[in-house]
Amino acid sequence: MRKIYALLSIVILILSCGEEVLPKPKPYLKLQYPKPTYKKIESNCPFSFEISNLATIKFKNNCWASIEYPKLKATIYITYRDVENNLEEILKEVEKLTFEHTIKADAINSVPYENYNKKVFGELYNIDGNVATNIQFRATDSVKHVLLGALYFYVKPNYDSIIPAVKYIQKDIVHLVETLEWK
Q1: What is the DSSP pairing of strand 120-128 with strand 181-182?
Q2: What's the whole-model pTM score?
Q3: Which residues pair with 145 in a beta bridge?
Q4: pLDDT per residue as tens digits for the range 169-183
Q5: Is residue 151 classed exposed, middle or buried when 0-12, 13-18 and 19+ CB atoms within 10 A define those classes?
């Protein structure tokens, strides 16, 4: 009887040792955003531009605005400034605010923008890392107007998690600057 149990145990061990069991790979969330369509925003302010239909905009009396993306829990804050022989001072202030993120940022890259026909000159700052704002931008006509913007999310900064949303909204910001017109 012992021989039968021993033989049966060996057969079970041999049959049970088939393929190697591996842990399942970590799943990753694949976010898909709808293709944006844009609408022109007109106001009493000295500028107009287009924003995504997925966003809503609220203006303040001083032509400051907030472009909200409720589904992404994000807002682009727009600041308008009149230029009164202080363009250089305003642009230095913007640069200073952007580079205050150097402490936490992994990298800060800038992309210039120029449209001589519309008299729109600007710069988009991509700020990589766990910072409060991953995108800031400015646009000016170099004479009378400066438009500044910063993207904020209503979550604790975790760059790896929000990067798809940042890249999605970045396309909308580029479109906003490309459609910007001064009045």
Answers
A1: unpaired
A2: 0.81
A3: 82
A4: 999 999 999 999 999
A5: buried
